[in-house]
């Protein structure tokens, strides 16, 4: 099952729908507070605990948590920023029979703090006592946030004002929000646990966690009677003689991820060096853009960009390939080549083509878009709309967006992947999956997930050359999960 990521507005709508269907907010609040208290008891030994409660329903959750911890014998005190203002919070505060006082916490005044000041209803920057807390408790150690660390905007993962609280553990409800998946928010949230509070699935989501639930059912496993040409033909365009390794990394990636026939298309001057490094991957020369177009006629997917060289020749090569039916994965130099005329690139692209920029390349072809967007999901979606193609924006929170509005965020990003050539392998994985018939958005999602898993499997010391060879162990896990 795909796991949706819900915006704050979608979550509020789900709350309202539940109320209309007969489950009032206080019931959801009781489930939320009880679930959060359980997570806290699983993670921490019983200890003197302070629950910081705000005036809204986030504070209401806090009173429920305090009650459940106290029932289990925890020494708990509530520190209230303001009296409960919402009806549900008033109900929860009324059922709390323990000690309540003003917000006076200092570092070390308790052994554990539970942050229930603000969640989805944050409407202005932290000030007064809440801001004091964020200033004097800059670290996350032994702070548990409920829904989000207070001061953080659920839809962006950034503080609304200057600062927010930070947490070691964040317990949220029903579904992750963007703040729980985007890198900036993840740093403030610490570990994120999603507790079920019995809300119904709502409508058709457009934003998902990128994990196998999103695409595994449509993974292109070979048919029992498969032959190599039926498993997809992928090609990668090589640079000149001193710039050939990147295309070979892409080619090897495509082969490992299952493409049946993989070819490096090479300028004449680079044939010898390519030939001396290729075995199962085939090699074919091209002399001109027309030649390239002809050679690529049989391809299902082509990677162009890794070490292709920045300039007019690469632009012409992209146009030549775009005249073919093959899906294009446009990466690295092929993106930068269009820095002065991104519209020319976009007009050549189809909906099944994929752009794979890192943030620097993204800025070159979508100038100012990242800075003007509240977060990376919005930026990638707008980029996909403008380009009329799938856009994969790299990062520890890689975002994949399709021109139809679907988007997915990766949660398994591994720091080991920040190494030269890793992106070339990713481009090859994407093209290798598209060549096997996977739809481009899902192919980009699957490739990014497998790439990150492979990085995590290897860990320290990873170099890009390792990545294709790590794909089989990840594929095996997917294969075995399918058989179950
Ligand atoms: N949706 C669901 O299904 C479920 C949701 N649940 C929980 O509800 C939470 C959302 O609750 P919520 O909407 O009441 O918002 P919340 O964050 O408590 O704050 C609103 C209050 O704070 C005030 N205020 C805002 N900013 C301020 C500031 N800087 N400084 C001072 N005051 C400020 C604001 O004032 P106002 O803007 O109205 O003037 C208002 O009084 C959600 O995060 C989750 O924990 C669960 O119970 C389970 C089911
Ligand atoms: K909070």
TrEMBL record:
Residues that bind AMP: 394-398, 423
Cofactor(s) required for function per UniProt: Mg(2+); K(+)
UniProt keyword list: ATP-binding, Isomerase, Lyase, Metal-binding, Multifunctional enzyme, NAD, NADP, Nucleotide-binding, Potassium
Transmembrane segments: none
Annotated binding of (6S)-NADPHX, by residue: 57-61, 119-125, 147, 246, 358, 424
Keyword Lyase: yes
Chain residues that bind K(+): 58, 115, 150
NCBIfam families from the UniProt entry: yjeF_cterm (TIGR00196), yjeF_nterm (TIGR00197)
Subunit structure: Homotetramer.
Family statement drawn from the similarity comment of this UniProt entry: Belongs to the NnrE/AIBP family.
Function (record text): Catalyzes the dehydration of the S-form of NAD(P)HX at the expense of ADP, which is converted to AMP. Together with NAD(P)HX epimerase, which catalyzes the epimerization of the S- and R-forms, the enzyme allows the repair of both epimers of NAD(P)HX, a damaged form of NAD(P)H that is a result of enzymatic or heat-dependent hydration. Bifunctional enzyme that catalyzes the epimerization of the S- and R-forms of NAD(P)HX and the dehydration of the S-form of NAD(P)HX at the expense of ADP, which is converted to AMP. This allows the repair of both epimers of NAD(P)HX, a damaged form of NAD(P)H that is a result of enzymatic or heat-dependent hydration.
This protein's name: Bifunctional NAD(P)H-hydrate repair enzyme
Organism: Caulobacter rhizosphaerae
Taxon lineage: Bacteria, Pseudomonadati, Pseudomonadota, Alphaproteobacteria, Caulobacterales
């Amino acid at each position: 099952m795909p796991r949706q990521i819900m915006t704050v507005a979608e979550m509020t709508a789900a709350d309202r729908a539940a109320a209309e269907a007969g489950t009032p907010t206080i019931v959801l609040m009781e489930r939320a507070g009880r679930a959060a208290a359980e997570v806290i008891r699983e993670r921490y030994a019983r200890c003197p605990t302070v629950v910081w409660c705000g005036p809204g329903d986030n504070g209401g959750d806090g009173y429920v948590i305090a009650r459940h911890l106290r029932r289990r014998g925890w020494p708990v005190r509530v520190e209230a920023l303001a009296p409960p203002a919402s009806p549900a919070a008033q109900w929860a505060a009324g059922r709390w029979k323990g000690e309540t006082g003003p917000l006076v916490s200092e570092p070390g005044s308790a052994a554990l703090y539970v942050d229930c000041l603000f969640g989805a209803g944050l409407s202005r920057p932290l000030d007064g006592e809440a801001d004091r807390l964020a200033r004097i408790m800059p670290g996350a150690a032994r702070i548990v946030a409920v829904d989000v660390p207070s001061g953080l905007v659920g839809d962006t993962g950034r503080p609304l004002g200057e600062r927010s609280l930070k947490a070691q553990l964040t317990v949220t409800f029903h579904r992750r929000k963007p703040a729980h998946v985007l890198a900036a928010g993840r740093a403030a949230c610490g570990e994120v646990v999603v507790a079920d509070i019995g809300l119904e699935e709502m409508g058709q989501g457009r934003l998902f966690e990128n994990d196998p639930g999103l695409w595994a059912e449509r993974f292109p496993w070979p048919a029992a009677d498969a032959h190599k040409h039926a498993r997809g033909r992928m090609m990668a365009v090589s640079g000149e003689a001193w710039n050939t390794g990147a295309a070979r990394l892409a080619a090897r990636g495509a082969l490992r991820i299952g493409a049946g026939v993989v070819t490096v298309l090479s300028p004449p001057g680079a044939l010898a060096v390519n030939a001396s490094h290729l075995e199962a991957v085939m090699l074919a020369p091209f002399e001109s853009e027309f030649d390239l177009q002809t050679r690529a006629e049989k391809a299902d997917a082509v990677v162009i960009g890794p070490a292709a060289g920045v300039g007019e020749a690469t632009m012409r090569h992209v146009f030549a390939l775009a005249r073919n039916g093959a899906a294009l994965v446009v990466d690295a130099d092929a993106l930068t080549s269009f820095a002065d005329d991104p519209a020319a690139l976009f007009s050549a692209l189809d909906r099944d083509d994929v752009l794979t920029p890192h943030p620097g390349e993204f800025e070159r072809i979508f100038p100012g878009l990242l800075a003007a967007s509240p977060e990376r999901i919005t930026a990638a979606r707008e980029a996909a709309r403008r380009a009329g193609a799938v856009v994969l924006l790299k990062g520890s929170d890689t975002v994949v967006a399709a021109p139809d509005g679907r988007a997915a965020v990766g949660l398994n990003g591994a720091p080991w992947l920040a190494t030269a050539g890793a992106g070339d392998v990713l481009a090859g994985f994407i093209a290798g999956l598209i060549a096997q018939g996977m739809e481009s958005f899902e192919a980009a999602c699957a490739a990014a997930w497998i790439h990150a898993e492979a990085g995590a499997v290897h860990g320290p010391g990873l170099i890009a050359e390792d990545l294709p060879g790590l794909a089989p162990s990840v594929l095996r896990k997917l294969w075995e999960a399918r058989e179950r």
